[in-house]
């Protein structure tokens, strides 16, 4: 009689455990994140025709896309709008060789992700991806608590970040109203490229105790969780569910066999 009572209960328990396991082990398909595409970001901005033409001609967009797929630190890109290029002297771009145009564009790329917040702890100078016989080309940044929040200095031009086109780790794109001009290519119009003593001391104070390698990794409101973290957590949860289900089923089978022997 005991066997007839316990068998339906064990069978029901087994079905419930299997249903719970199926839900945890085989979740529905998820939509992969869209590929970060500088061209799309600039086209959505609506005022970057000249920049897009240069990026396509030099194939810098392909290089940036490749780097974003393989970079742990991310990238930051300063995007001069069409008005910025009109401020250049007539014939400036045409006078540059193909290689110089590439270096000019790479001068607008920082090999780390910087939110507007993490710029405040950045240690000058910030190396860009452009380089020459003298080494890496660099820029300086200064920050403020009022608008504009961040100002970029090359030694030739000083330009504030006018707007944020995209800022989510690992990629940040900021609009600027001037083309960033490296002094190695355009000559220095003033000696403001090196920070003033007071600015250097303030930057050192802000940076004290913060390793340089952590500047780009500092979390902010625009930074997403590192790719794969949520997947690992879900996998761990599914593993626990499968283990519990196995324990329940084996325990039920042991009880069932014990009852059979006792009967």
Automatic annotation (TrEMBL):
* Cellular component GO terms, alphabetical: plasma membrane; side of membrane
Record's function text: May be a cell surface adhesion protein.
Q: Where in the cell is it found?
A: Cell membrane
Ranges for the FAS1 domain?
A: 35-180
One GO biological process term is: plant-type secondary cell wall biogenesis
What organism is this sequence from?
Miscanthus lutarioriparius
* Family according to the record: Belongs to the fasciclin-like AGP family.
Region called Disordered, residue ranges: 203-231
Lineage at the top is: Eukaryota, Viridiplantae, Streptophyta, Embryophyta, Tracheophyta
- Give the residue range of the signal peptide: 1-22
Name of the protein this chain belongs to: FAS1 domain-containing protein
**Parts of the chain that traverse the membrane:** 240-261
């Amino acid at each position: 009689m005991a066997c007839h009572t316990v068998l339906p209960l064990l069978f029901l328990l087994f079905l419930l455990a299997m249903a719970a396991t199926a839900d945890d082990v085989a979740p529905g398909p998820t939509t992969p994140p869209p590929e970060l595409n500088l061209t799309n970001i600039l086209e959505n901005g609506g005022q970057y025709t000249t920049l897009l033409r240069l990026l396509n001609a030099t194939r810098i967009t392909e290089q940036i896309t490749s780097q974003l797929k393989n970079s742990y630190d991310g990238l930051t890109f300063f995007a001069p709008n069409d008005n910025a290029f009109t401020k250049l002297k007539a014939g400036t771009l045409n006078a540059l060789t193909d290689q110089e145009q590439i270096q000019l564009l790479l001068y607008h790329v920082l090999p780390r992700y910087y939110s507007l917040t993490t710029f405040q702890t950045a240690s000058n100078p910030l190396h860009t991806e452009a380089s020459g016989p003298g080494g890496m080309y660099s820029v300086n940044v200064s920050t403020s608590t009022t608008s504009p929040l961040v100002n970029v200095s090359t030694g030739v031009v000083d330009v504030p970040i006018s707007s944020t086109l995209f800022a989510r780790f690992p990629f940040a794109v900021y609009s600027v109203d001037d083309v960033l001009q490296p002094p190695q290519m355009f000559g220095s119009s003033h000696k403001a490229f090196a920070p003033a003593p007071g600015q250097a001391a303030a930057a050192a104070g802000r940076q004290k105790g913060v390793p340089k390698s952590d500047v780009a990794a500092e979390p902010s409101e625009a930074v997403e969780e590192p790719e794969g973290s949520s997947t690992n957590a879900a996998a761990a949860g599914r593993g626990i569910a499968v283990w519990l289900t196995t324990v329940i089923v084996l325990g039920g089978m042991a009880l069932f066999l014990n009852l059979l022997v006792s009967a």
